[in-house]
Amino acid sequence: MELTGYDSDALNSVFAALADPTRRAILQHLVKGDAPVSELAKPFAMSQPAISKHLKVLEQAGLIERAIDKQRRPARLRAEPMADAVRWLEVFRDYWAIRFDELDSLLDELKKADGKGPGND
Amino acid sequence: MTDSPIFVLERVFDAPRELVWRAWTDPTLLARWYGPNVETIVHELSVKPGGVWRNEMKWGNGGQRERMEYLEVIEPEKLVWLHSMTDENWTVSANPMMPDWPRVLLTTVTFKPDGDQTKLRLTWQPYEASQAEIDCFAGAMAGLDQGWGSGMDILAEVLAELQA
Asked: Which of B12, B97, B109, B120 to mutate to test the interface with A (most CBs of A within 10 A)?
């Protein structure tokens, strides 16, 4: 459960950014390669300014970076914050699953004990 | 922005319901499976509405304290409690790794008999949470359901890129 080396505020913004389906779709598009706003807006029934707002949230969360010196300012995926989020998510996902494994073994033990011992209370 | 989603985990245990119930409500048994591979101390366990379970896990030079407050106890069918991380003084506190993680998670566990087996269903959802907490939890749930994209492929690709 203990994880170190995290920037907790950064992780906060990553999770908040990922809560939105449009932003998740944008990230997925960027996995294929850098893309400008015009291209990112295409699959959505959204204006470019609306998409730009989403890009800003992703940028603030550190999930993307945007070229400053280019006119089209293509967005590029940044992997590290995502990887931190994935690791955290795995810890969360396994929280109960690991405990259920332990419970499973304990129940086996208890059943055996009940079977040959003096029985339940 | 987002409705609060629910985390669901289901498991079938190969044991009769009464035994499974006992493992969740007897402090000695509870300490043996909750807190896997770490020292687990059940400081208090009062399984009744309004009762409290204070749990400590210790590892290396660290540890984690949790406080659960039971809202509903229907033996041997259902347990409902408010689940929180706490500081050293058992005061509910934010997750140090993620400040906006919901401080209180409403936890519901149902025990259903199925022959000699027991079907267990556990749910977690934010309780009296702020919008920031709900968003944070929703972001995590989206990752569990679809891997933050269609399928886990985005994660795989991103991680591959990271290692490249």
From this structure: B97
The larger pLDDT score, comparing residue A77 to residue B85, is at B85
Phi-psi group of B55: left, alpha or beta (phi > 0 → left; psi -120 to 50 → alpha; rest → beta): beta
DSSP per residue, B117-156: EEEEEEEEEESS--HHHHHHHHHHHHHHHHTTTTSTHHHH
User: Measured between CB atoms, does B142 come within 8 Å of chain A?
Assistant: yes
Tokens of B96: 């140090």
Model confidence over A91-112: pLDDT tens digits? 888 899 999 999 999 999 999 9
Interface pTM, i.e. ipTM: 0.88
* Secondary structure (3-state) at B27: helix
pLDDT tens sequence across A34-67: 999 989 999 888 899 999 999 999 999 999 999 8
CB pairs under 8 A between A and B: 142
Q: Search chain A and give the residue with CA nearest B138.
A: A19
pTM: 0.83
Q: How far apart are CA A59 and CA A47, in angstroms?
A: 18
Contacts of B138 in chain A (CB under 8 A): 19
Contact B46, B27 (CB under 8 A): no
Contact at CB, B99 and A6, closer than 8 angstroms: no
Distance between CA atoms of A75 and A29, rounded to whole angstroms? 10
- Alpha-carbon Rg for chain A, nearest whole angstrom, is 23
Q: A110–B23: do the CB atoms touch at under 8 Å?
A: yes
Distance from CA of B81 to the nearest CA of A (A): 15
User: Which residue reads 């939105």 in tokens?
Assistant: A20
Q: How many residues in total does chain A contain?
A: 121
Distance CA B19, CA B3 (A): 36
